[in-house]
Amino acid sequence: MNNQEYDVIVVGASNAGGMAAAAAAEKGAKVLVIDKMGSAGYLYRETIAAIHSKAQKKAGVEIDRNELVNFISTFNQGNVDQRLLNVWADNSSEMVDWLDDEVLQPHGAYIKATPDAHYETERNRAFPTGNEATAPDGKYWQMGYGNWVIAKAEELGAKFAWHTKLEELIVENGRVVGLVAKNMKSKKTSTFRARKGVILCTGGYGSNQALMQKWNSLGLKTNVYTDSQRDDGSGIVAALKVGAAKDEEPASIVFNRGAVPVGTNAEDFYEVDLTPPDDPGYLWLGSYPMLKVNLNGERFFNESAPYQFQMTAASKQPGYLSAMIWTEETMSDESLKQYHTLGCSRLGFPGIFTGEEARKEVNDRLNEGLVQKADTIEELAEKLGLPKENLQKTVDRYNEMVSKGQDSDFGKESYRLEPVNKAPYYGAIVGGRLLATLDGLRVNTKMQVVNKQDKVIEGLYAAGNCSGGFFWGIYPDHVPGLTASHALTFGRLAGKYAAE
């Protein structure tokens, strides 16, 4: 890299970054992408939300644009910039179609529309937004297609500098004109100048416990693992130093799949997962709405809800954790299928979860001591450290309602009521797995970063999880693929705008 001057510099090569690089290069810009790690292709998400994509039209999937946008805004109690939601809705299909035509199909893969999104109550309102990056055999996700996105960007002329970390942005006369970066191997710093713009695609801050304590302290308690091991918040911090504004309240996407040892103190337990795909404590079954109780052995909420509702509800309970209770019969393919879950927990493609995998994973966690097995509820309570009398009373009450086909205590749908009345019984102590933080830098509809007065910081753009205004609080996972699509769509737009 003898020539250190480019038109556009993209920081981060994951979902938003790869798309930004390809889009800018398509428009003829000289593009450099820096990334602190050695690869990023495995991070690209396979379920991608959109409305009116070619695949959806072919499958007859129809989604009303305003209905969906207003649902997302309502879900977030209006704590979003609805103009950004409109921009996403109006550009998501173009992004998906480009990905299908230019990246997937040349390799034999393709986009397949998710045909439905089953729900029966307003609590579980859902939309069939998923566009699945599908392998050539049509039976599974096309994992690692992000490597093809990166290769496409390189084919278009973008250069990638790996093991290169953003240190600070360079500002001249109020405009961002480049950055200082450090080579993670040599520790040497270099200056790179950008004639047109710098695009931050650096992700969130989930692996930075100091920033979690500062910006999402409750999330630090309710999450026991973070699967966002690369997300150190460096892009957000660099932008704040040059006057950028940031969302004032936290937002995140969390899975209720974190099994921890009995007796865990959630306030002290926060493991940064560095070993994908062999994720410690992963319990995919946690996303199924089976019986959940607090650490007093008492049921405390309707388990049938978006994933993150469990951790939010548990934050009002002692210890910030839940115990999940189920039986051998509950893990049969027939029983699991009746729950009609969405997204990655959906049983069978276009989800990737299977009954066989569920049973194997439970057995693996059992061998590790993270799942407990017993012949009686009393024995299970003892193994889980729960009050025996309370848990037995809760299970008896639950079974009584299941037999009547009506959850008169919390209103869970009848098709999601499964008895807990036949040994062997299983249980696990469960907390959250933070997939990503979603509160970030404030941007306008052209992905330009703005300051607290809503004035554009010239030359600075942001996309993906380091950009804000799109999510608040809890992620609406009943709009499958929305986080991935937010990153991919806004990354593509940022690349186009920056290259102009």
TrEMBL record:
UniProt keyword Oxidoreductase present: yes
InterPro entries, A to Z: FAD-dep_OxRdtase_2_FAD-bd, FAD-oxidoreductase_2, FAD/NAD-bd_sf, Succ_DH/fumarate_Rdtase_cat_sf
Cofactor entry: FAD
Signal peptide: none
UniProt keywords, alphabetically: FAD, Flavoprotein, Oxidoreductase
Matches recorded under SUPFAM superfamilies: FAD/NAD(P)-binding domain, Succinate dehydrogenase/fumarate reductase flavoprotein, catalytic domain
GO MF term (any one): steroid dehydrogenase activity, acting on the CH-CH group of donors
Keyword ATP-binding: no
Example GO BP: steroid metabolic process
Stated name of the protein: FAD binding domain protein
Annotated ranges, domain FAD-dependent oxidoreductase 2 FAD-binding: 7-476
Superkingdom to which the source organism belongs: Bacteria
Source organism (scientific name): Lactobacillus apis
